[in-house]
Design a protein that fits this description.
five-stranded parallel sheet, six-stranded parallel sheet, binds nicotinamide-adenine-dinucleotide
């Protein structure tokens, strides 16, 4: 069986190659992302493996379908970039619902600690033999209010981490499924929290959940952490909140226009996303390139579950990680 793999890098190929020793599939790795233009690379393949920033719209799905591809195996949890309606009845879609919530939750806390305690600046200073502490003052997390929006696997892991730091944790979710969480209204998250961390999926309800109106309700100096999906935040509103000093810090592992940018090296180019350039230039913003998932444990599990999904499909077993349309 032949499988096309889009948007792959050396760091994920090694985990898939190791896992594929069990299956012996013929894997065709491509650096390019899956889109209507690159679907043709899947000719002869039964399954196409795709990732967070692939553009799997109706045209891409129709092209894959015409080429005989039967399964789109997402090697990630989110599937907001797949037109499920277009796929229905043509191509099955599977995903890796849980791989390591700790990887992403720990990255969220790592970003928060880095920005709050200015570790990124201290690192650069001491390398330059500059031992000044000016401008490096942070605040204790202990006793501060953390607001967690979305209390699924990652949000719940982040809640546990925040509690370990002695924070008062408030949560908001449309399904109040974590018995250890203290659920409050979204407005209370906005108005009472010193740190707000986003862990809900991108849906029509959560698109730009952080916007001018919600920022206006927030405490002055609030830190916002987004390791979920870029479009949860209206980036222009975020920049306004930072420049008028309402927002004390922003930790961004995702960005709404990241698709063509993240995971690639553009250090030599001058034609850059102006909003991202402005955000990055702020002293109280740190950006990582959608790397929350990037631990050995997560990559190993992603490889194992993706290939198991493909094996389940090809062996006509129940495809337990199939994705269905929830809101037709
Ligand atoms: P999950 O499905 O376990 O949890 C998501 C939670 O969000 C659920 O409890 C759900 O009820 C809640 N939710 C849905 N709609 C909501 C709304 N309108 N308001 C508030 N809460 C809502 O997912 P997860 O594994 O915890 O992942 C969370 C998100 O993290 C994913 O959707 C994905 O976007 C992102 N993610 C990022 C990385 C990374 O590398 N940065 C890796 C994996 C996942």
């Amino acid at each position: 069986m032949k499988i096309s793999f889009y948007d792959t890098k050396p760091y994920d190929r090694i985990f898939f190659d190791k896992e594929n020793e069990k299956y012996g599939y013929e894997i065709r790795y491509f650096e390019t992302k899956l889109s209507k233009k690159t679907a043709v690379l899947s000719k002869g393949c039964t399954a196409a493996v795709a990732f967070v920033n692939d553009d799997i719209d109706k045209e891409a799905i129709d092209a894959l379908n015409e080429l005989g591809v039967e399964l789109i195996a997402m090697r990630c949890a989110g599937y907001n970039n797949v037109d499920l309606k277009a796929a229905e009845g043509k191509i099955k879609v599977a995903r890796v619902p849980v791989y390591s919530p700790y990887a992403v939750a720990e990255h969220a806390m790592a970003m928060l600690l880095t920005l709050n305690r200015r570790i990124h600046k201290a690192f650069l200073r001491t390398r330059d033999y500059n031992f000044s502490l000016n401008g490096l003052t942070g605040f204790d997390l202990h006793g501060k209010n953390a607001g967690v929006i979305g209390t699924g696997n990652i949000g719940s892991a982040f809640i546990d981490i925040c509690k370990g730091f002695g924070m008062n944790v408030f949560a908001y979710d449309i399904f109040e499924s974590n018995p250890k969480a203290q659920y409050v209204s979204l407005d209370r998250i906005f108005s009472e929290c010193d740190v707000i961390s986003l862990h809900c999926p991108l849906t029509k309800d959560t698109y730009h959940i952080i916007n001018d109106l919600s920022i206006a309700k927030m405490k002055s100096g609030v830190f916002i952490v987004n390791t979920s999906r870029g479009s949860l935040i209206d980036s222009s509103a975020l920049l306004r909140g930072i420049t008028n000093e309402k927002i004390g810090g922003a930790c961004l592992d995702v960005y709404e226009e990241e698709t063509e940018i993240f995971h690639e090296d553009f250090s030599d180019t001058t034609n850059k996303d102006r909003l991202l350039v402005q955000l990055i230039s702020m002293p109280n913003v740190i950006v990582t390139s959608h790397q929350g998932f990037l631990t050995k444990e997560a990559l190993q599990k992603i490889a194992a579950v993706t290939l198991k999904n493909i094996s389940d499909y090809s062996n006509k077993r129940t495809l337990e990680n199939e994705v269905f349309i929830k809101n037709p």
